[in-house]
Amino acid sequence: MKKNVFLSLFAFASFCTANAQSYLGYTPDNYAGVQSVLYNPASIADSRFKADINLFSISSSVANDLYGVKIFDVFKDGYDFDLEAKKNFSNANNGFMNTDIMGPSVMFNIAPKHSLAIYTRARAFMNVLDVNGNVVNELSKDNKTNFDYPVGSPNAVGNSWGEFGISYAAVLFQRGEHFLKGGITAKYLQGVANYHLQGTNINLEFQENVLFPEQSQYVSEGTAIYGSSQDFADNSDVEINSKSRGYGLDLGLVYEWRPEYSAERADINDLKEVNKYKLRFGLSVTDLGSMKYADGIRRNYDLNETITQNEYDNADSFDEFLEDNYDFTVVNGGVKAYLPTAIHADVDWNIHRKFYLNANADFGVVSKTKLNQNSIANRVSLTPRFESKWFSAYVPISYMDYSKQAQVGLGLRTGVFFIGSGSIISNAISKSSRAADIHLGMKIPIYQKKAKDKDQDGDGVLDKDDECPAVAGPVENKGCPWEDKDNDGVLDKDDACPAVAGPAANKGCPWEDKDNDGVLDKDDKCPEVAGPKENNGCLWPDTDGDGVADKDDKCPKVKGTLANKGCPEVTTEVIKKLNDFSKSVLFDSSKATIKPESHDKLEGIVKVMDEYNNANFKLEGHTDSTGNEAKNLQLSKDRAAAVKDYLIAKGISADRLSSEGYGITKPIATNKTVEGRAQNRRVEIILIK
């Protein structure tokens, strides 16, 4: 078996890594079709396809945390892996491999909200965990020297199997902007081949014999459980037993936020050919299950032995080498292999029109120390993409925990063909790549038909739901235009009085005039009481309550009569009262100077005139016949004017007063007696009308 015995024991064929997700960057595409069911079975519900037929597709990836290479140099003639690869040896190196082949498969809609997928699939999955890389390095050398290393407790699993899966997905919830779908995949597993090894406290020492190299010795310690799907020591050809089978399960949910949904576009959820979401959230659990190999064999080996180089070189196979050189006990005859159960989460953002950004995370949820348990390498990725019906381009950017390197890839889809890699760009420029992957496939997509030919009036309501298919109308009115029965310009849906015309400002109803004063309530400041239009529908105020509105009342604060424009009437009694005061006004002899004792009488005149402030008065002066007639005339004028000036000085408006003197011409008594002459010397107050 040459030097490859221990190298195979601990490396299973150079370190390679299983990606967390097959078809990296491709499955989030809304046109990924049946391939998307491998990542999340809910994705096929409400899809862009009537059917999607996969002819053949493959996704394969390798990576590790021990060797770094310039990928394209590996394929050149004369490339020496041991010499040219950059090595990163540690006491716990890891490696994985994944190959995922999808055979003839199909997905299709079985009802508007229900979809089905049937697929065939072949898978090979390999894990090598916690191996001392220094031991691998020593075993790879042609000329070994003495070494002594603790190998530790490595755990290695290699498993290959076939899958037949049936996926069902349906819309679970649809309300307004919120849309939820779920899916489940049940799969039958047919085991093909299995290897698994788990060591405990293994130590390996090499003792070189310089004179006789074939007598050099490998001294090992520890124990190991080694099992396989059949006894390859007796028969190295893989024999598939139909009884080596198992069952698996995938579960998934997808939530979509559809903010463009509105009452006017409620039909958008029924349109299959357009993107409807702004954000999509996916969550799934894949590879729940296991399979049991009916012809499997498992042995517990005691590795506390010393093996010569000659015994090592002469072994024909790894299984034969173990059986011939180490003591063992059979643990059991059946071998159970566990699927690499994982949780996947992704967020897909429709940035604008056909441009998207996808964030994805894949996490293994199984113990990596469990016997015969495959596990994924945890990965996070960010993938911008352009997506259309017949073409997509995507650039996945990812980081995986075992390779500990960022990777940048590129992928293309052209309807019937797709190809991509999650690492092609980074590998093209890196001199120390630890990972490589590729996926490609051929398919026959059958897309959903556009619904525009089913909406002849273009109002967004499909003809099947449109009660007026030839006339555009809103979805709230089942595709019919709103009516306006009273032709007032206010649609009936908004018209509070659809049978009577009215302005839009009053919700289609005519304005009321509750007090019937000719002023509409909308303009009437006193809608419950009738009033003139000039006063905005309110009664004119009458402050003094005399029945004459203030606007017409010359004396708005004093009661009066309508005939006197709201002011009190100046009666004969009032004039008599004024003249009683005026006749008592005394003047100095032969002068127009008012004596002080007459001021009280004058104040009485002022008070009465203030009460009748809209009345105008004439002051007439008179004398007796004693003395010169001409002088008496002038004296009468002066005395009347003196009373007038006094009243004006006390606040009576000059516009209301006039004065005149008549001398001896208008006696009211005889001038022959003292009493008569006294009566004739007077100032009279006359009302001017």
Automatic annotation (TrEMBL):
<keyword id="KW-0472">Membrane</keyword>
<dbReference type="GO" id="GO:0009279">
    <property type="term" value="C:cell outer membrane"/>
</dbReference>
<dbReference type="GO" id="GO:0005509">
    <property type="term" value="F:calcium ion binding"/>
</dbReference>
<keyword id="KW-0732">Signal</keyword>
<keyword id="KW-0969">Cilium</keyword>
<dbReference type="InterPro" id="IPR028974">
    <property type="entry name" value="TSP_type-3_rpt"/>
</dbReference>
<feature type="signal peptide">
    <location>
        <begin position="1"/>
        <end position="20"/>
    </location>
</feature>
<dbReference type="InterPro" id="IPR043781">
    <property type="entry name" value="DUF5723"/>
</dbReference>
<keyword id="KW-0282">Flagellum</keyword>
<feature type="domain" description="OmpA-like">
    <location>
        <begin position="574"/>
        <end position="689"/>
    </location>
</feature>
<dbReference type="InterPro" id="IPR003367">
    <property type="entry name" value="Thrombospondin_3-like_rpt"/>
</dbReference>
<keyword id="KW-0998">Cell outer membrane</keyword>
<dbReference type="InterPro" id="IPR006665">
    <property type="entry name" value="OmpA-like"/>
</dbReference>
<dbReference type="InterPro" id="IPR050330">
    <property type="entry name" value="Bact_OuterMem_StrucFunc"/>
</dbReference>
<dbReference type="InterPro" id="IPR006664">
    <property type="entry name" value="OMP_bac"/>
</dbReference>
<dbReference type="Pfam" id="PF00691">
    <property type="entry name" value="OmpA"/>
</dbReference>
<dbReference type="GO" id="GO:0007155">
    <property type="term" value="P:cell adhesion"/>
</dbReference>
<dbReference type="InterPro" id="IPR036737">
    <property type="entry name" value="OmpA-like_sf"/>
</dbReference>
<dbReference type="Pfam" id="PF02412">
    <property type="entry name" value="TSP_3"/>
</dbReference>
<protein>
    <submittedName>
        <fullName>Flagellar motor protein MotB</fullName>
    </submittedName>
</protein>
<keyword id="KW-0966">Cell projection</keyword>
<dbReference type="Pfam" id="PF18990">
    <property type="entry name" value="DUF5723"/>
</dbReference>
